[in-house]
Amino acid sequence: MELSELSMDDFLRGLVRRIDALDEARLGLVSKVEVLQSDNESLVRATEGLTQKVDCLTRENAILRKEIASIKYGESTAERSRKGSKTEHLALTTLGNDAHVHIASLLGAKGIACLGQTCMHFGKRCVGTDGQMTSLVEDLAGQVVDGSASDYEKSVLVGRGKVKMLSELEMMRSPLCFEQLIGSADAIRYSQ
Length: 192
Description:
By secondary structure, this protein is mostly helical.
């Protein structure tokens, strides 16, 4: 019996040592997990900081593009600073394309052209998303032409201003009519 008790004691001591070793390994893994979580949190903070820097640089880039466009197209810095001091109005570009097309459908080509000539906010050219100088009126006319003209009509209307293209598109679609006939009534003959 002594031998079996001795081997049982050795076996239990071995198990206790293994349990202690596993507990130490678990504590080591817990500390490694805490270090990794701390590193992850610092990386998240660094990423947020970089995102804020990117946003700031994007805004600065947009301002610089506007300044370059204003210099390129002849607007003086005095005009720019005077115009910058005015209160900002609601940006009509935030309304979306559906609202723009709805406005354009109510007015037609002549109405859009008159709107651009009489209202500074619709007719003033500014830098568009593609970097070109364009006005809200031209955008409206362009959206209507792009949305409603067939491929053939677009091929015929290439190379003109957007408002002019819309006007010519409306003329192309209207029925051909004569407002006044020139000549004597005797010279006009109708064939059956």
